[in-house]
Amino acid sequence: MKTRLLSLWRTLTWSWTPISEREAGEAVVRNFWIHWFPAKVADQSFSWSYSLWLGTISLVLFFILTVTGFLLMFFYVPSVERAYWSIKDLDFSVSFGWLLRNQHRWAAHLMVATVFLHMARVFFTCAYRGRRALNWQVGITLLLSTLLLSFTGYLLPWDQLALWAITVGTNIAKEAPLVGDWIYFLLLGGNVIGQETLIRFYVFHVFIIPGFVLLAVAYHMWRIRKDGGLAALDRLESSAEIKEKAPVPTKTYSLFGLAKGTSVQVKGVDKIGEENSLFATPHLLRRIMLVFLVTFTATLLLAIFFNAPLEEAANPSVTPNPAKAPWYFLWLQELVADTTLHLGKYTISGGLIGGILIPGLLLLLAALWPFLDRSSPQSLGVWFPPERRTQNWIFAVIVIAIILLMYIGVAMRGPNWKIYWPWQNWPQLPTLL
Amino acid sequence: MVTIARRTVLKVIGQLSVFGAFLIQIGGAVRAFIPNVLYEPPKKFKVGKPEDYPEGVNFVPEHRLFTVRSANEFGIISAVCTHLGCTVRWESKVPEFECPCHGSHFRPDGTVISGPAPRPLAWFALSLSPDGYLVVDRSEQVASTYRFSPPAKEKA
Ligand code: HEM
Ligand code: FES
Fold first, then answer.
1. Total beta-carbon pairs less than 8 A apart between chain A and chain B
2. How far is residue B156's CA from residue B137's CA, in Å, rounded to a whole number?
């Protein structure tokens, strides 16, 4: 019965049945839905422990954010009078509006985390050397875009968190030498935060940045294939265990056979060997669906059990005490609070040092790291290779410092940004003034 | 003598004009983002009558500033932190201004005691409107010693 149904399905959806592996591979390339996969994928690329699938999880989260975000656009009104109340409506009067909002919010938090962890994975497996340096840099723009998406996103509710985040954020931009005032005016669409500012951030959040991420991710994926698949494959290829095969014509399965250079299946299958790889359909497809389902379920469960916060309506005359950025920006808040320098009669604001110079230098360092790195090809695609101990420590120390600053910001800063130890209570403050 | 074919000249003119048209269009689109009209609160505004404010430091929430009164002398100090723009609070017991965002502290004259704020809080010029209201001019910064004494009220 089952085979009967299966063959019925085949007759309905396929005009022809592949008779060889090669034909099956071509079938993948010719199918609209799956043509962007390589025909065959090396076993190593499926490994859970090598990539941790963090890139795919990030992409799934981006997809969830796009769908929930697009639905939220039907309810959210980007106006300073109505924004806050349209969020309240989502939480309390739109059926399942809370679910939509919560899922969007938690997926956003998770995406910041997984994109960062993905970057850490790529670093610790030395997967950014040589021709992959470009894709590492594309990745850095993706990390930056992810952070900007979150930043522009949490402004939209126009609650106290939103207002003070936008105030502090745009004032940091204002500290930039020479162009600061100009950027500030353009970002705000005037001299004070108001309707013009909200609509600008809104368009960035729902169109410009996600559009950019979409293009950059597409490029990121294309580059992975043109760079010869995941870095772990390079080492497999060069390892002696794989017996030389008779040379195969290097036909690519690319559209029209026009693309130059290597592509995964050429390398993967010809050099790694048929027996070390699997067909993308159904194996890769099934794996991606699994990752999708697990990620989706995780965001859904979070959304059901935890509500996205909403503070009081924006009020420019009262800053909450303490006023805290979300966790992934708290290390920056900690930095801008600690880095104002007094040199004789000159003062350099922490906004410039902690808000622009330090994060800018960190990004620059990350972007140039592939060229400073001198690890040997043996380390490519390997977790924690011994010769990279120093580099890995440098990376880890920077990350630990950032996490420490975050922890201080989240857990130890009380009213007036004073340090309180976990065993100390915050003083009771008079509410308004 | 250099000769340039008529065809080449025309081609270059044609290409430049198409390109130029693009640039003008892009320039116009960018320019649209620099507003010509700002619907913003005026820089000069009334904050109430002198007799509305008791002695000492009083917060005026709508305008994010404090009135400072001692007898018939009035000063206006900004509540906008010079670090990154949060609203500072007046802690009368200490006494000082404190910023909740990154913990800057200011003396009653606005100078920085501690914290990341790079500059003292701003003081603004004051005047009296014909109908007897204090008028603040945010565009005119003054020294922290500046005080304004409204003329004694004439009997109407
Ligand atoms: C929106 C954010 C991002 C998405 C959706 C994404 C997606 C992916 C995916 C699906 C892979 C395949 C392997 C895997 O799943 O781990 C990958 C690999 C890679 N990613 Fe990303 N990525 C993002 C951000 C980044 C960042 C922040 C970096 C580094 C700065 C980066 C650098 C790389 C590199 C170099 C590879 C090749 C790794 C290898 O050859 O083993 N990506 N990315
Ligand atoms: S904004 Fe006041 S201390 Fe940073």
1. 100
2. 27
